[in-house]
Write a structure and sequence with these properties.
The chain is 61% helix and 5% strand. The protein is mainly alpha-helical. It is flat and about 100 Å long.
Length: 794
Amino acid sequence: MRKEPLTPVRAEELALLRRTLLLARESPQVTRITGEAWSGKTHLMRRLSQSARQEGWTVAFGSVPRPGPARPFEVLVDALDEHLGHAGASLTAALGTAHTRCLAAYFPSLATAPGAPPAAPAPPDAYGAVRALRALIEILAGDGGLLLALDDVHRASPETLDFLTHLVHHPPRAPVLTLFAHRTGATARHLSAVSHDSSRVRHIALAPLADDRARTLLPAGLDPVTEAQALRDGAGVPGLLRALAHDPATGPRAVPELSLGVPPLLQHGPVELHSLSSLGWRTACAAAVVGSPFTPGQVAATAPLPEEEVRRGLDELHAEGLVAPDGSALRFRFNRPVLRALLYHASGAGWRGAARHRAVLALRSDRSPAARFALAAHLEDTDPLSAADVRELNLAAREGLFRQPARSVRALRRVTAYPQAPLESHLLLQKALVVAGEPEEALRGYAGLWPRVHVLWAPDGRHDALLWQVRALRLLGRGAQADALLDAAGSGAAAAAGAAAAAGSGSGAARAQGGELLGERAALALEAGLRNDPATGPGTGPATGSATGSATGGSGWDRALEAARGALREAGPPQDPGHAHALARLAAVQAAAGDLPGAARSARGAALLLDSLDDDGCAPVLEALRWLGSAESALGDPAALRHAERGVRLALHHGQAFLLGQLATGLARARLAAGDRAGAAAADALAAEAARRGGAPVPAHVPEAAPEPDMAGIRQRVSGYQLADQVEGRLSELSRRELEIADLVADGNTNQGIAAHLDISVKTVETYMSRIFKKLGVNSRSQVARTIGRNDGH
């Protein structure tokens, strides 16, 4: 028999269920399975049912096929009625007249079974039916055992929940495993008494899959960026991951592509949506056309349906775990963007065409930013555009530049296709191209527009165009060209702004512009340092050319420090995200220049500010996480891993392809420092693919760590010399890498030899040495050797 693809990723949970089935031979068991929609609950129950049948168990599998008011005991009727129909008169005799009469009111097979008593004229006795059901499953279990598997219990009637609660507190006197599954969230609140109030209920929670397991549900051959996008969109949910497993050549799109506009066509098979009622289905399809987030009014106009009916439809979708409030009761979103994409294409092309027209009309009347983004997504495929449409596209593109740069690019392409499009829109398009990861195209655009910029545009516009050209060149690894461009602007507004910032004078706007330019000069120095020391990041110093010296004077890191400090002075108040960016960049420069105390102070301040920003607030200054991670890595701060992971996650989420490669390189280094070699290799591959896509130089490969040091051997040598307890205590404070370097010092290696052996920079070794001296309370290499049990240190 063919092995189902989901089984391996839920193998541990299936093994636990099989062990529970064995326990039920000795005493009755109750187990619940919880998880979000399409997390694998039904699959596990069916796999267990298959195993149980093969082992001689009687299996009764039932589910509630649709939402809405459930009939009493409906899921139990679905599970047991067929068994009752085949049992004959012997079953009714074993049940007895009273129990049979109670159940006959609910079970069609008992109402017509041979020997069944006539139905009682009294109203159905629900509690009597609960007790009768317990007796029934004892009879069906017999000596072979009964697996009673109940799916979608979050839709079940109160009578069913009464039965489950009764079964927990009054276990059947037979080998019975009662297994029920339900979705998590608001839809399952009424199950709390059954789910949590008794230690007799075993709980198996199906959490989202970890990335290593989720990858097994994706097609082979995906490049690292596409795979990362699929893992993000699939969110560890098996059904959604399989829906994303389409043609590798197409690849999963970014989140905005699934949330707004026309999403890619995904596989429908793995995700079932047929359980929705007619109202729920129509509401879901209309919401999918509008885009996420949406309001009930927008959906009502798109459906078209009365808004009161749409609200009932949204209640159903919320109960099914498909939608959730988006910040308020007035706006909703799909819980997973993939769901919206599936529903969009399942709605039918003919109905969808008219619905999109109605959605546009509804969105035009809503002036909120969310509605503007949704309207712009529809207008991208609308022809012809009115003057008002062009204004909407331009405004949405500007507002979404850092949160949805790819969408901003498409909107601005429509805008700039019109001959009367202003120069500002053309320049905004080039800026969006840089953010979206198309720096080469942006540079070509800037080259064609530059004569018009000097003639027609204000100084602040020239400054912005200059700044983003420099960033495009820097991201492409063309530091010398970027520096030359900054120097060439020396006779224009940019130089004046830079001079004003350096002197602490001039207007606020001019000083802010100068601060940004100084920040780019510091960034160029950091880029040069990264190229000189690819193994560990900044550490050996920038190139000695003019990459940081034109505006600041001096040489090497002194010039870079002066530029970074000047950028911080003009970055605005601490509550401004730009201040966090400047502070993180300064921390990276300080760490690279060897000023570790200063780097630590700056990094702490930057971390505090960046951690206080939500994901959208962090989008305009995402590069700050790169510089903060660089500084923290140089300081040996484990927070580097957390900030690097957030940077990569946000670069993927916001579609800022221009930073993904650099952030992924930082993540590779942070994972390597944490001892996660496999994770480092994955981040390294992601960085290389992101660079290839953007036309940037492939970042230097982050080397695998040197062979693990013989920690046991080092400790054994230490204990062999019977060190004093206080020395042993200090030794235990050393990190793995610090102990490794201390051992190499004791072997007589110089700093240069250690750097070559570990493939790190000499300055990094020096940094480690200062920490080792401080932790061990020594001040010479020979004392280090004696401390770890050697006498031959140099």
